[in-house]
Amino acid sequence: MVKQTDLDGAQAKVDELILDKNCGPILVRLAWHDSGTYDDSLKGQEWPGAGGAIGSIRFEPEILHGANAGLSGALKLLEPIHEAFPEVSYADLFQMASSRAIALAGGPKIDMKYGRVDATNAEQCSPEGNLPDGEAAEESGKYGGTSGTASTEDTTPEGHLRKVFYRMGLTDEDIVALSGAHTFGRAYKDRSGAGKESTKFTDGKAKVMRPDGTEAKYTPGGSAWTEQWLTFDNSYFHVTPDESADPELLKLSTDKVIFVDEGFKPFAEKFRDSQEAFFESYAKAHKKLSELGSKFEPIE
To answer: Which residue pairs from 150-157 have beta carbons closer than 8 angstroms and sit at least 24 positions apart in sequence?
Structure first.
């Protein structure tokens, strides 16, 4: 059973790591890919049969799934913290790092719940195919596939997003709010299949500022959705529909569709017009995502 003092100690070390390495975005991706395997239709099975935020991403074969390319580096960053605070589960540590990354980047403070129980072996990993694609496969022209716990295959980006996120029990508002996290971080061709080797916003020469006004040191590479990609704000909702936005900023088909689809568009416009509204919806959606499939024990 984890103690509050352990959680506090781990969080202090997580904060140090994020501020030292400017690694917030990859920690968000790690947590989301752990929780994003969840299938709400399987919640009646014995835990952790439905997947979710259970720490299983640390095991092979899950960490080797195509969608998780590059995330072994995030695991290595967090391992010393887990060694220092072994009573904090991996599932808690992954979700803690994600929420702290958002907060330290200027985003909303998320009402996190801790005490998650960890998956204990590779047999508890979800099958490959439950996570979303940014673009359709070149060969088939389809998004997603049929290999996961439920088919995510669709010929349209909006259909694919709904198959993925509705399977988790999330809504159109949640989908658009979570899409807004693309304001933070970069995409790499060798990880997600999207993005360039580098752009003028990520080439190491570009000044990338942190919310505290200091310049961030970063490893060059990848494509960003926004110019100041280490700040969490609603810039994504301004850039995405702007046809005059710099062409070196990334816009995936699953990004552009939120301003086209009739179910997504009202939320995208709302979040463009009000950062406060975005933060409110985002914090709720992030909390939901972080608890999917989790089994909690009391905190001492």
So the answer is: 150/39, 150/41, 156/257, 157/252, 157/253, 157/254, 157/256, 157/257
Question: Which residue, among 182, 178, 172, 183, has the nearest Cα to 267 in the 3D structure?
Answer: 172
Phi and psi at residue 296, to the nearest 5°? -110, 140
Residue 188 DSSP class:
-
- Give tens-digit pLDDT for 220-230: 999 999 999 99
133 and 116 Cβ atoms separated by less than 8 Å = no
Count Cβ atoms below 10 Å from residue 276 Cβ, excluding itself: 11
d(CA 195, CA 205) in angstroms, rounded, equals: 18
- Residue 291 CB contacts under 8 Å (≥ 6 apart), including other chains: 35, 53, 113
- Spell out the alpha helix ranges (H) of the chain: 4-21, 24-35, 72-84, 90-104, 157-167, 172-179, 235-239, 253-256, 265-273, 275-291
Residues tagged active-site: 33
Closest CA to 74 of 54, 52, 96: 96
* CA within 13 Å, CB half, 204: 5
Note the pLDDT tens digit of each residue in 234-245. 999 999 999 999
- Are 18 and 101 in contact by the 8 Å Cβ rule? The answer is yes
Q: Which residues pair with 209 in a beta bridge?
A: 215
